[in-house]
Design brief:
about 525 residues; three-stranded antiparallel beta sheet; single chain; 17 helices
């Protein structure tokens, strides 16, 4: 159908081209064209009055000549879309059709309001321009969204980011959270968001009983106080995780909490589960409805008062109970056992099989109806990870795993050491996590792909990065750092390009691509 309407657009551009050529010939030969309705409506229709008016020439160039150029270029652009199927030609058609319609609107105003007469040939050109714009708007919908996101990306990456990156990252993070929460309450968010949200059945999946419109989610660690649950739908996220949230509130580790490593495409993260606590956040979320699946990430309270494994398990269970009691309408939980920035991380952890089994057994006793996904470390060996997964698949409450958390190896080859040396604390997100995350996704899919939903996290800066994780075995992916470096339009860009990537590889739905490179 799209090809049919592109052919119709091509026909209209050629009609406009011929109309403009005729008017150009008339202009240079000083011949007035006949106006067929002149005898019926002499006041409204007088081609000579319009074509001989001073408004028929701009900067010494007849409008008819400009029309020839306009429709000629537009014809070439439409042919480019049909023959070469290149996105640049689609952008060209969209932009030129907008300018053509705006120019026609102005010239119709001149005829009605100033000259007070109509030229049938000029009016025909305007009708052609308006019809082309309507057809382009309807049948180049995806390309329109791609053009919007490309424009937003250009503005963010060349102007906004340069200003933001001059300022303290924690300050900018706080400002963005406040502005996002505020905009979610205004009609403006719907107007702007409508330019970013593109729905397509090829991205829809049902996993662990949850319907996901698309596979791109916001990872835990950004919206740690659950301020953006009403906003992220309008950035085209398919789901989001809030937190990580703990039973006791925590102000965050000693500064710096965040740092930027631009050349490494990474962030230094040292928050240590900064949040207002399970009770405060569950009360905030208790009466809210969510447009996308929202997950609550839960971890152990970052406090030296928790001194034993048993106390840590009890602390985590209390957080789950708090959210269940508040009847929060979250779709899933995350269990974050892999944060490396906790004061009690050296006293105990949940990586040994006995420790992990103890924690998950306690959660099993709660008989939660909502699925739990476990946020996994990436610094462990394959053997250690497999042992953890052996325990995880034995517990019915656990439906999936997330690979993974921060890069702890400060000497990882992906990190530029001159940037690392700026930070004495914290660990690293973004590209330094990508390689190991992908390795573990592949490992988990090969051994446990039929038993666990796998979510990929780490180093996603474009659609190819996300698609690679999907083909290795991730049904869903999460990001934060890529959005900060590339801009908030990145989510929509990834979704739009995933549609094309899946189609290129012959998949009708993105779920068909899951694990294709690990089988």
């Amino acid at each position: 159908m799209k090809k049919t309407f592109l052919s119709l657009i091509l026909f209209l551009t050629l009609a406009g081209f011929i109309d403009s050529i005729y008017l150009t010939w008339e202009h240079f030969n000083n011949v007035l064209p006949p106006c067929s309705v002149n005898n019926l409506f002499p006041i409204l229709s007088d081609c000579g009055k319009v074509l001989k008016s001073p408004y028929s020439v701009i900067f010494g160039i007849p409008l008819a000549v400009i029309g020839v150029i306009h429709y000629g270029l537009l014809t070439l652009a439409v042919l480019g879309v049909i023959i070469y199927k290149k996105r640049v030609f689609s952008y060209w058609v969209i932009i030129q059709s907008i300018f053509g319609a705006l120019a026609s609107l102005y010239f119709m105003y001149i005829q009605f309001a100033i000259i007070r007469s109509l030229c049938l040939y000029c009016t025909l050109s305007s009708l052609i321009s308006f019809t082309i714009l309507v057809l382009v708007y309807i049948f180049l919908k995806k390309e329109r969204f791609q053009l919007h996101t490309s424009l937003y990306a250009f503005i963010y990456q060349n102007f906004v980011k340069r200003i933001f990156f001059l300022l303290d990252p924690e300050f900018i993070h706080g400002i963005m959270i406040k502005r996002g929460a505020f905009l979610a309450k205004t009609p403006l968010i719907k107007f702007v968001g409508s330019k970013l949200i593109y729905k397509d059945n090829s991205l829809k999946q049902k996993l662990a009983g949850i319907n996901f419109e698309n596979p791109i989610g916001l990872a835990a660690g950004f919206d740690y106080n659950a301020d953006l649950t009403q906003a992220l739908y309008y950035l085209d996220f398919g789901f989001q995780s809030v937190g990580t949230i703990t039973n006791g509130a925590y102000r965050g580790n000693p500064k710096p909490l965040l740092g930027r490593l631009p050349r490494s495409k990474s962030l230094m993260v040292n928050k240590g589960f900064k949040n207002k606590g399970a009770r405060a956040i569950s009360e905030k979320l208790g009466n809210l409805h969510f447009l996308i699946p929202v997950g609550v990430s839960i971890g152990v309270t970052n406090s030296q008062e928790i001194k034993s494994l048993e106390e840590a398990v009890k602390d985590i269970v209390i957080s789950f109970k708090t959210f269940e009691k508040a009847r929060v309408k979250n779709s899933y939980y995350e269990l974050n056992i892999s944060c490396p920035n906790l004061v009690n991380a050296k006293k105990f952890n949940f990586y040994p099989q006995k420790n992990l089994d103890l924690l998950l057994a306690a959660l099993d006793k709660m008989k939660l109806k909502k699925p739990i996904f476990i946020k996994m470390p990436i610094e462990k060996t394959n053997q250690e990870v497999v042992k953890m997964l052996d325990v995880i698949v034995k517990h019915k409450s656990i439906k999936g795993v997330i690979f993974g958390n921060l890069q702890k190896n400060r000497k990882d080859p992906s990190l530029l050491q001159s940037e690392v040396k700026k930070f004495k604390v914290g660990f690293f997100s973004g590209k330094p996590c990508e390689k190991r995350s992908n390795e573990l996704i592949k490992l988990a899919y090969k051994k446990f792909g039929e038993k666990l939903v796998i979510i990929g996290c780490g180093g996603i800066f474009n659609a190819e990065d996300a698609y690679k994780k999907i083909k290795l075995g991730a049904s869903l992916v999460q990001l934060i750092t890529g959005m900060i470096f590339q801009g908030p339009q990145l989510i929509s860009q990834i979704n739009l390009e995933l549609i094309d990537l899946a189609k290129r590889d012959g998949f009708k739905n993105i779920k068909e691509a899951v694990g294709i490179d690990s089988r």
